Amino acid sequence: MNYNKITPAVMDAVSHIVQGNVFTQQEDLICFSYDALNQKYYPEAVAFARTAEEVSLLLKLANTHLFPVIPRGSGSGFTGGSVPVMGGLVLCLTRMNQILTIDTDNLVAEVEPGVITGEFQKEVEKRGLFYPPDPASLKFSTLGGNVAECAGGPRCLKYGVTKDYVLGLEVVLPNGDIIQTGAKTMKSVVGYDLTSFLVGSEGTLGVITKMYLKLLPLPETRKTMQAIFPSMDNAARTVSEIIRSKIIPSTLEFLDQAAIRCVEEYLKMGLPIHAEALLIIEVDGNREVVDKDAEKIEALCLQGGADTVMTAKTEEEAEGLWKVRRSISASLLKLNPHKINEDITVPRSRVPDIIRKIVEIAKKYNLINVNFGHAGDGNIHTNFMIDRNNRDELARAEQAVSEIFQATVAFGGTISGEHGIGIAKAPYLSLEIGDKGIEVIKRIKKAFDPNYILNPNKIVT
Amino acid sequence: MDALKKLSEEASRCAKCGTCLLNCPLYPETLLEQNSSRGKLSLIESLAQGEITATRRLSDILSQCLICNTCGEGCPNQVKTEETFLNARRELCSRRGLPLPKKFIFRYILNSLRIVPALLKAGSLIQGIVFKRIPSESGLRLRFSLPLIDKRRFIPALPKKFFKESYPAVVTAPREKMKIAYFAGCATNYIFPGSGYAAMNILNRHGVSVVIPEKQVCCGLMAFGSGDWKSSRKMALQNIEAFEKNEVEYIVTTCASCGAALKKYYPMLFEDAGDDVKQRVARFSNRIIDISDFLINKVRVLEQPVKLTSDISNNTNRKIRVTYHDPCHLHRSQGISKPPRELLKSIPGFEFVEMENAGTCCGMGGSFNITHYDLSLKILDKKLESLKKSGAQILVTGCMGCMLQFMDGIYQKGMDVKVMHLAEVLD
Fold it and tell me: Where are the domains of chain A?
């Protein structure tokens, strides 16, 4: 696809549409050239929109003059979903950040895309309600970005991912048309499920300007536990055992030995460095149920071969247990300056198999490897700690990632549980969905965006 | 070249994860990536690698930062943001120079022992002409527009007598147990001498004699923050020399910002100096201690029979509600947040309440408050909301900059809260 450069005359029109909320100086553009993938691509201009109408006018302009438009929230995605790989206009939606309604009768919220996820959660929780999706970035990522990437998080084991909470959307299509998808109701089967097309489409099919999100009642209480296992196999078996006994914890996180050692080195809180796995388990719900489930889980862990099981008695103790999980990222950088972080997901019973495979691959390529993540739903954050300036190491890491992806698919898993494809994983797409799958995606993209102006070269090229 | 390489290396440690966005007091107000820490780090990387030059726009963007270090504290990669930003400002200052008023003030005024008092003395005499008095607040407002001073601004009136004029070189305690030196700082000396008097009283009451070296000058923080390390070093050396003449173990400060400068930033200023200079600086910096830390951990006032009271509460039985704001330069720069609270809680007539986000920056940020006044006030608004919610009648803090900021906001909002320095409530 050939695009036109944004000329000064077109830029004037852009600026007019968004009432001067634009940037074109190089210094400003640099600040919109990256996301959490940390690769730089410079836009030609940046615009901040306030309304769906402004977005619509911008997209119409882009279709007329053929320049790319890249929707952007907080720019905290891990796969380059919001970087302008083909130049063009970065369209910031962070200032469309109003929570329009929180309907406590129907348990639906109507929100703009720029609302920060964590702030939205605080607001609904004030009303005794609950919006479960909890990506690690929730304190700074936007709901619009979460929906566009279909973000996950620890709690999706019990509560599902972002798509399970999107009832409907207001979307500006690439041609500038403003449409509503879905409805404010729990049920709606009118026509194709366009909402599902849009959720997780990474800003390639339309710009989300409003969302209707489903809310739940806030669970009365929760309990946090930590179980330490000398063997990873036993830990994994226990995870399956817990689920088989009909308990779905709200979160079930694990750290492998390398992660435990990193965190211990970092926090010096006396974690057992010889243990192969550490589980952090949280149950929530009514007090009686939570107490009963926690007791049962404790027993299952001990039966399953855990050395110790600790249940937090206070909010502070729970915080302390979570601190272990939350400190992993920071602690890893002691090993090497950069990390390659993947989010493969396998059926939970295959977790020990894939971990064994990952360890084997890491050894083969002589790489520092650390694994942690969401044991309960099989979503593993496998990390290679490297120095990007070491070309050879980088190449080995890329090779290792490719082999891990192949193994993941062979185990019936998926190459991305929650980070999306963007540009980072685009080369591996066919591995999982095949050329025919890619063909379908391309046809859908063309149907929505015949001129390829919206976030080009993402997911597929 | 070495400095550039260091800048580039540190800036490129940023993974662009975005954690800094919402930790920043400024970013949520503008939602501009340029105001985020990772945006600035990205620019610094580009500058260090020669991709961009020291343009005016770059200088603008880098000036939009409070140097509160909340981003650095919360960074998963532990990027030294504060240090990097300060070094980048230095680089920019050396390439672009300073705006004229700043240059003049930093190079020729602040380091002088005579000009500042003379100017301000004159100011205290003519302030009635330029400013309207706000009798109830003992403050001032501009009668007409002036450059650099916003017309909305509340400014405390200059005192008739400055702090250093009121004391001899040594203030001897009646029953001397210990002797320390005191660094007064500009704001204590010229704007809030009351906080200095209070500090002297408390120290004396606890048997601490105080040496006030006459040759001390401005701590140099404002120049340092603006990238003018040359002026800043000059002031630093003058101060170091002024305090070298006495052998006391501690140099007490009552202003968090001065304290941070003397304790944390002076060693940074002389990182490239020779070993002998570095040693002198380290000796000086290691002696610096904030009054709250000194009272709690050195004098151990809470274990002393001398009572720590405040006469504010004497005439009524109802307890006075006080809250505390953590200055960035005390909390994050010096790691002090408990001692002031312990002191406040020990005062019988006080009911101490913790306000929400007590550790969030007030928006002052030194010259940020002058160059970006509207933003500064917006950031302050959030603090004022928490303050209102706390129901406190007195807001206590330990930094003259924060005090000025809160007084301004409280006056503009018409709130009924008194702003006091910790030493004042203890006296």
Answer: 8-94, 99-217, 221-327, 335-410
Name residues of chain B where pLDDT drops below 70: 1, 135-137, 145-148, 306-317
> Taking 90 as the threshold, does the pLDDT of residue A35 lie above it?
yes
- A298 at B interface, C-beta within 8 A: no
Q: Is the Cβ pair B17, A114 closer than 8 Å? A: no
Domain A335-410 has CATH 2.60.120.260: no
What fold does the segment set B305-426 form as a domain? Rossmann fold (3.40.50)
CATH assignment, A221-327:
3.30.70.2190
Q: How far is A353 from chain B (nearest CA, A)?
A: 30
Average of per-residue pLDDT values in chain A: 95
Specify the CATH number of the domain B2-97.
1.10.1060.10
What ipTM is given for this predicted complex? 0.94
Its CATH class, for the domain covering A8-94, is alpha beta
Portion of chain A with pLDDT greater than 90, in percent: 93
A99-217 domain in CATH 3.30.465.10?
A: yes
Q: Chain B: residue nearest A72 by CA?
A: B33
Q: Residue ranges per domain, chain B?
A: 2-97, 305-426
Mutation target among B5, B9, B10, B22 for the A interface, most CBs of A within 10 A: B22
Count the neighbouring beta carbons within 10 Å of the beta carbon of residue A242: 24
- Tell me the pLDDT tens digit for each residue of B331-382: 999 999 999 999 999 998 899 999 999 999 999 998 899 999 999 999 999 9
Contacts of B32 (CB under 8 A, 6+ apart): A31, B39
* Residue A71, helix vs strand vs coil: strand
Q: What is residue A131's predicted lDDT score, i.e. its pLDDT? A: 98
pTM (whole model) above 0.90:
yes
Contacts of B55 in chain A (CB under 8 A): 27
**Residue B275 main-chain phi, psi, to 5 deg:** -60, -40
